[in-house]
Amino acid sequence: MKYLAAYLLLLQGGNAAPTAADIKKVVEAVGVEAEESRISALLSSLEGKGSIEEIVAAGQAKLATVPVGGAAVSSGGAAAAGGAAGEEAAEEKEEEAAEESDDDMGFGLFD
């Protein structure tokens, strides 16, 4: 993903045809080691595909067909768990899970 981001940054910066050396320079400028094989794989996958706008439009069309629904929570589950008390307990568990996710990393975003 970092190589694609570097490629897109170069395009935005006015470089109409970024090379492997250009991408490597951008990636290494932020202190990350660049892998030549991944850069060449990216460039070969983009070769002959047209403009980046066409590639993005084709990707959006494909993405529109991907189901994005997750597991639905039924309202019957809350009623079976004791009505309002069950809903409150479920909300508390969600809040605790959100708080614990920050603790796992050892720091908070705004600490």
Automatic annotation (TrEMBL):
A GO term from the CC aspect:
cytosolic large ribosomal subunit
A Gene Ontology molecular function term of the record: structural constituent of ribosome
Keyword set, alphabetical order: Phosphoprotein, Ribonucleoprotein, Ribosomal protein, Signal
Per the record, the GO terms for biological process are:
cytoplasmic translational elongation
Which superkingdom?
Eukaryota
N-terminal signal peptide = 1-16
Q: Where is the composition biased (Acidic residues)?
A: 88-105
InterPro entries, per the entry: P1/P2_N_sf, Ribosomal_P1/P2, Ribosomal_P1/P2_euk, Ribosomal_P2
Cited Pfam families: Ribosomal_60s
Annotated region described as Disordered, given as residue ranges? 72-111
State whether keyword Disulfide bond applies: no
- Tell me the protein family, please: Belongs to the eukaryotic ribosomal protein P1/P2 family.
**Function description:** Component of the ribosome, a large ribonucleoprotein complex responsible for the synthesis of proteins in the cell. The small ribosomal subunit (SSU) binds messenger RNAs (mRNAs) and translates the encoded message by selecting cognate aminoacyl-transfer RNA (tRNA) molecules. The large subunit (LSU) contains the ribosomal catalytic site termed the peptidyl transferase center (PTC), which catalyzes the formation of peptide bonds, thereby polymerizing the amino acids delivered by tRNAs into a polypeptide chain.
**What binding partners and quaternary form does the record give?**
Component of the large ribosomal subunit (LSU). Mature yeast ribosomes consist of a small (40S) and a large (60S) subunit. The 40S small subunit contains 1 molecule of ribosomal RNA (18S rRNA) and 33 different proteins (encoded by 57 genes). The large 60S subunit contains 3 rRNA molecules (25S, 5.8S and 5S rRNA) and 46 different proteins (encoded by 81 genes). The 5 acidic ribosomal P-proteins form the stalk structure of the 60S subunit. They are organized as a pentameric complex in which uL10/P0 interacts with 2 heterodimers, P1A-P2B and P1B-P2A.
Q: What is this protein called?
A: LAMI_0E14400g1_1
